[in-house]
Amino acid sequence: MTDGFPSDGPAGDGLRRDDxxxxxRQIKQRLRQQIESGALGTDAKLASERELEKQYGxxxxxxxxxxxxxxxxxxxHSHPGRGFFVAxxxxxxxxxxxxxxxxxxxxxxxxPSSRLIEGYVCRAPAEVARPLFLPPGADVVMLKRxxxxxxxxxxxxxxxxxxxxxxxILDLDWSTGNRSLYAEVRDRYRLRPDRGRTTMxxxxxxxxxxxxxxxxxxxxxxxxxxxxxxxxxxxxxxxxSSHHPLRYPLSLDQRG
Length: 256
What we know:
By secondary structure, this protein is an alpha+beta fold. It folds into 2 domains: 23-86, Winged helix-like DNA-binding domain superfamily/Winged helix DNA-binding domain (Arc Repressor Mutant, subunit A, Orthogonal Bundle), CATH 1.10.10; 101-243, Chorismate lyase. The chain has helices spanning 23-37, 49-56, 60-72, 101-107, 126-129, 181-187, 207-212, and strands at residues 76-79, 83-86, 93-94, 112-123, 139-149, 152-162, 195-204, 220-229, 235-243, 250-251. The strands form 3 sheets. It has a 6-stranded antiparallel sheet with strand order 4-5-6-9-8-7. The chain has a two-stranded antiparallel ribbon with strand order 1-2. The protein has a two-stranded parallel sheet with strand order 3-10. This is GntR family transcriptional regulator. Residues 1-20 are annotated as: Disordered.
């Protein structure tokens, strides 16, 4: 017996045991199709684990794995004691160089938070030194943080500064809560980002991104590279960010 029925028998509700895809992934695909088609609308309650187990003729473990991945990818959210519900997916977040993650989150009525992954001073790598107009070997500060909305991880960021511009920034408590880097740069260091350049791309998540953003490999991330400049055209900082494609979709406003 495997997954609750004989290994040579048919799976329930159109699942195929001879399919190279694992059964949990077949269930996940069918549930996702129901969400995308609107058969399961926003905030709709998913059938219970017992009901799905009976519908698909599989074990509770198989059902849980399918549902867990849909939660991790942002298709479902959990209400303890009530079950799983289809997540809202129509909301997008503005990509704006001069507005912080905190400002954007609060404008959408969400609760932002962050977790420090690492922070250090090092010699600037070439891909950072050139855009920041720094000589080879100049000291730079790097802060890597995991940004969350309502407790769910959505963006992994790396912020780079010339060390001389932000003395003591690593002495601040970045480990918990939601200290705004944008506010510290503006208020503590009197740096005024005025304009910038943004480069967008997409690729498969690496192992660290997949783990921290709760993605199931292979999974894509949207990557953003931003350089901010002050009114005199001097670089303030450089940011690399990897975005969860479903939990934090981005929008761009364009005007003719």
